[in-house]
């Protein structure tokens, strides 16, 4: 089902803004940009009207909003300026972001570079600006620092502020009793909570990772096989792997705090006899759940979920007989499958001018034209067939040689 752009019920967004979710929306944006230049080129039009028509406002400083603002700047500077040279100086691109920085999910070095580049390119980045209304000819925003409400004339508004649920999904959530949620809630096996045989993945769903502290008592009792009220080293070793697999926040916490294993978390030496009671166990794991985060609504997550579910379905009968998942702490036996685990492979942020920023695993940061070529190669490799790969690369080649197509077809 996917998702739709989240308007946060802001007045006028549905009626007057463009979105960046569907192919037909992309075509509408292209037609609108060309149409605005056509209208602004009329010789009888006053200068102020030309400036208003060529005022483009992008709402949302995430990767999508930033990439669109950069691409629009390149399109205007490299292509439309050649067709309408007299209008070049009237174009203004404004990026509104409610937070303190654009690309705030990236490393600080990337955020600073992007803001500085946009400043050099003449893209007006307004931080701490929350949109309160979108009109036909102007957009109204409230500045957080001063509390002042400002109006910006516009010819086109593009809205890119996150993902919301589609009406069909909202209705399904009501039937399941999942209220006040941004998406369908699933367990770690991507099974919709409240059902036995319905699975959801991608933008329409979010994983409800269980907290360790919710199950701390049953974890301890399951590990304490002799019911002594204490865990010794052998009992602890028998269950530690299942704890880490069932609750990934434990592994994240260990790595973040540079701990080698669960024994380090319990502040005990691996060589010594670990004897802990339930209260000590609770205290040691009390901060682990702070590492829990929702997965981002990206294609990278959805693609990995699709591969995971396909593999589970293909091996359903086999895993019914020979379960491979972690220990059932609130039941008997083991889960059929291992829980879904997202493996972050990095993220890119194209910044225009053939420059891209990349943040890859291992805190590896790369910014510049070489990273743009890395982005080209990754993007090409993700195409579903050699035919689409050749088509995409061919489009890029034509753009380099002849420029972007500015027709309305």
TrEMBL record:
It is found in: Mitochondrion inner membrane; Peroxisome. Its EC number is 1.6.5.9. Residues 211-246 form the EF-hand domain. It catalyses: a ubiquinone + NADH + H(+) = a ubiquinol + NAD(+); a quinone + NADH + H(+) = a quinol + NAD(+). It is an enzyme of class 1 (oxidoreductase). It is a peripheral membrane protein. Belongs to the NADH dehydrogenase family. This is NADH:ubiquinone reductase (non-electrogenic). It comes from Glycine max (Soybean).
